[in-house]
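Next comes the chain:
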Amino acid sequence: MAARRRIVSPPENQRDAGYPEIVPRTRMPINSRARRSLGVATACLGLTVAACSGRGLPPTVVHDGAHTSSAWTVTFAQAVPLAASGGAGGRVRLWRLPEAEPLGAWPAHEAPVTALAFIDADSALLSASEDASLARWNLSGGLLARVATPAAITTMVADATNNIVISGHADGAVRVWRLNDLTLQHTLTPLAGAIQAVAYHSASGRVATGGADGRVLIGPPAGPLRELPRAPGATFSLAFSPDGSMLTGSGWYRLYQWTLASQPQLRVLSTLHRGLIRAIQFSPDGHQLASISRLTDSAVLLLDPGTGATLMRLQPHDLCGRDVALSPDGRYLASASDDASVRFWDLSALPAKQ
C-alpha cells in the first residue's frame, strides 16, 4: 500500500465474482510507532467537514461506495492478511492486505451489521446485527450457523481463547454465548437502556459494559458486575489496555479512563475530537489509542492513552465516523463511516507524528 489509491467499489447488491485462495502467513512486524448506535445516522455538519477535510495524513487506499448508505464496522484477522467490513445494508465485505483489494461480498443480515470478528483461526467470520441475530460464515460467504437473539445487537466481541462471545443489546441485556456452537450461557441485565459498549479482556476474563446514563460495570461474564466510578456522560465505546490494568471509554470530546486496582479511580482526558468519539481501540503495545468521531466531527486520530494528546492526525472522513480498527501487528489502521467508504492506512509508511 505504498501509493494512495482511491477505488470505487462495485455496488453492494452485486456479489463479487470469485474468491482467491486465502493462505495464512507469518505475522507482519510490529510497527512500534503505530499503533455503532441504532438507526442510520445523518451527515455531519458540512461546515465542520469542510474545515477538517484538508488536515491529516491521507489514507493509503480508499474504497468509496464500499457499503450502501453507511459503512458501520471494520475488523482485521489475527494471523492472515485479511480485513472485513459490514454496512447499513446488511452486507459483509472481505479485503486482502496489503493492497486492501476486495475479495468478496455477501448479504449477511436484514439490518445494519453492528460488529464482526474473525474466528476459527481466521477461517470463518462472526457477524452481529440489528436484525437480532448472530451468524457464522465461511470466507466464501457460506452460512455455517445463525442464532436469533431476543433483541437487536448493538455491539459484540468474541474471544477464541476462552471460547466466548459477548453481545450487547437494545433491551439493556448483555448475553454471553459459547463461541464454538453459539449456545447461550448467561444473560446479564446491568443497564436500564440500550447497551452501547462492551469490552472483554481475555487474560483476566473480565467483561465491561456501558450505556447512555454514563454507568460502566465490570466483572466476570457470569456476573455479578460491579459499577466503576461514574463518568460525567454517556460511554459509547470501551477498550481494555493490553495488560488489563486500565479500561478506557469514549464520550463526547473526552476519554474516560479507569485504573482497575482494588479501588478503581477515574480520570477524564480531553482530546482534539470535536464530537462524539464513536470507537476506540488500543495498539498491541498499549502505547497508542486509535479513535474516530461523529456528530459535528469525523476525525480519525491516534491518541496517547495516558493523556489524550494527539500523536497522529489522519485525514477525516467526508461524513460522520462509525468505526476504527488496528491490525493485530499494529501495521494497518482501517476506518468506516457514514460516507459509505472503508479506508486503510499503512502506518509503517507514515511519519511518526502529524
